[in-house]
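Box S2. Input/output pair 1.
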Amino acid sequence: MPRKRSASLALLVLFFTFASSIAHARHFARVNIPGARCGNGSPYSVWLDIKQTHKLMIEFMGGGACWSAQTCYGAKLRTWMFPIPTVPVVSWISNDGGPENTHGLMADASMIYFPYCTGDVHAGQHEADYGLVKAHHTGYRNVIRALQYLNDTGLVSFSSFKQVVLYGASAGAIGSLLHAPNVEKFLAPSAAKIILADAPGMHFGETFWNKFSDELVNDYKKAFATVGIYFTHQDTVMARYLPSVAQVLKSWNVGILQGARDIVMSVVFGNISPNGHRELVYGPKGLFEMSVNTPNISVWLPDTLQHTFLLAGVTGTIDADGVSGIEFAKKILARDSQVRVRTW
């Protein structure tokens, strides 16, 4: 199949995955964040569902990335740059609606939902001029502003929660990792801190960084450095930094779910074929090998083209060496350490 056609099909998979998430489950209140902006300049909001519970779920929405007028707004669209609809689309793991057996693993938790509308994997800190259009790549700033605002106004009593789970899929998976230190500043030291990063990628082709502007790359370098990833333009396997990430996030129990042949993270964004992606994932600097000495970071790596696993219950049943994605997530939530699963 020609590469261009494969990319188009993979992009459809990306948008279908997020569109098929649970859209009706929780009772959210919309909170406008002063000074925060979506990619097109519109005001940015987060969504709250506060329950009488000691558990907090923070979900970072995913949905691609962009680096030009065409990829942000045009014919080669790779993300969305506008505020999300009135009712946010949440993952299965956060779902608290429907019959009891359809509830997600964090159904009883209070929830903060961070929409994604800046095309920068929640890592940007600048406004880009793409000629006829501008793009507010300010996702990192948005999260920082929101956390501070929610804390200062008392809308979220962060220090009262005994268990805090960060979840994100795709671009949101990257956001969940990057913003763990920012969230931790507001938490009680004794709180159980957990991250489920669902398909963050971390394995790319040799030309991956060429498509981004210097400003966007600099934003990424700043954001990734906060969790121990000091990459260069020559780095194609971000997973090589996993031991450093483990040290920075030593207070967190981290679970990473990543399809070895993830068609979205390979063909659409990674500048690499699915099989090339698999070779990196299972290679000497990939997630599996680099997690050997990271007791607080576990990995689940099925040999599949699937992109994301916990957005929908059905994809959570995909198996890797006898362990489903849902079973892996349960182990991470129970704070099991060194869960390492692959199928190749």
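Box S3. Input/output pair 2.
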Amino acid sequence: MAVELPLEIEAEELASWRGDGRPLTVLDVRERWETQICMIAGSVTIPLGNLPQSLDRLSGEAPVVVVCHHGTRSLQATAWLRRNGFANVTNLRGGIDAWARRIEPNMSSY
């Protein structure tokens, strides 16, 4: 049975989940040039435009936290995934920018 997550979570909550070893997938929907600058370790990278044909790369079991630069594209991806059968998906509010500022301040940013 899938656990429905809130529409968005904060960077601190994702950091806590990762620290607890909670099984989850961090899905980064930014373009390749963006993920080359910075990304959350262990993320699955699928640019937003490629998401519809790449669903086989996502597990239907583990929660999915979707990330982009500031949270707009990832919120679109979260809504799209939910409409297409993925109830266990949430958006990282503020995106990689919030993560870099509040969780990994030494991370490169743009």
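Caption for Box S3: The first strand starts at residue 8 and ends at 9. The mean pLDDT is 94.
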